[in-house]
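Quick illustration, no need to memorize.
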Amino acid sequence: MPEVLLFAQAREVAGRTGIMVEGTTVASVIEELIERFGPEFSDVVAVSNVWVNGEPAESDSAVGVNDEVAILPPVSGGLE
C-alpha cells in the first residue's frame, strides 16, 4: 500500500503527517484521501503539487505498493 506524506495545510486538515492508502494512480490515491478527509482536503489538494518517490507526478502517474506519495501545498511566508 502506498504511503502518503502530508505537508503544511494538507497535514493540518488531515490531522496527521502520513497515511497508508490503496491506489494504483495518483488520482486514485487522491480520491481515497478526499473520501477520508472531506471537502476541505479536496480544496487543499486542488492547489497542491504531488510527488511520487521524489519526482513530480501527474494524476495519471502510476503508484506502486511500496511508493511514497507526497502532497505539497503552496507555502507562503518568509522575511519581508
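The radius of gyration is 12 Å.
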